[in-house]
Each structure stands twice: as C-alpha cells, then as structure tokens.
C-alpha cells in the first residue's frame, strides 16, 4: 500500500497531562527599541553566540523574576 497512513481514527486522551511548560510559551509582540540598544544586544549576541532577541528576553525575564524597579530621573 503506497503512502501508508498510521493515523488512528480516534485517540484516547483520557490520561493526558496538561503541558507543564505552557506558561513559558512566548508571545509575539511589536515593540519599538532604539537602534543603539539593538546594536548593543547584537554585539552581545556575537560574543555569546546567543541570538540577540533571546538575550533581550533573558534580560527582561531577569528583571521580572527579580522584581527590579525602574528608577527614572529627568535632568
């Protein structure tokens, strides 16, 4: 039989377990970031071998996990 199809007509999900990593799924957004900031992370990417968007995510995640507070002062 050509193109053997091993798919069942029905599957039993009664013992299925919810994905424990569901909270870690990434959400695509649009964000405006200064060119100099992108260049900084791209430079860090070249040094570390980690994609720059991943580095930005890691940095922001660290801020959120450690509940870092932003302190802004206008001169």
Outline of the structure:
The chain has 75 residues and is an all-alpha fold.
Task: Give the arrangement of secondary structure elements.
Layout: H1 35-48, H2 52-65
Helix pairs in contact: 1-2
Description of the structure:
- The chain is built from two helices and no strands.
- It has helices spanning 35-48, 52-65.
- The longest helix is centred in the middle third of the chain and has 14 residues, at 35-48.
- It has a domain at 36-75.
- 0% of the residues are buried.
Question: Count the helices. How many?
Answer: 2
- What's the shape? elongated
Low-pLDDT windows of residues: none
- Cα-to-Cα separation, first versus last residue: 77 Å
What does the radius of gyration come to? 22 Å
- Structural class designation: mainly alpha
- Mean pLDDT across every amino acid position: 88
Order of helices and strands: HH
Features:
75 residues; mainly alpha; 2 helices; elongated
């Amino acid at each position: 039989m050509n193109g053997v199809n091993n798919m069942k007509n029905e599957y039993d999900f009664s013992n299925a377990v919810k994905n424990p990593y569901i909270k870690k799924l990434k959400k695509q957004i649009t964000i405006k970031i200064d060119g100099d900031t992108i260049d900084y992370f791209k430079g860090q990417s070249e040094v570390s071998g980690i994609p720059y968007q991943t580095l930005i995510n890691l940095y922001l995640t660290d801020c959120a996990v450690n509940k870092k507070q932003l302190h802004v002062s206008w001169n």
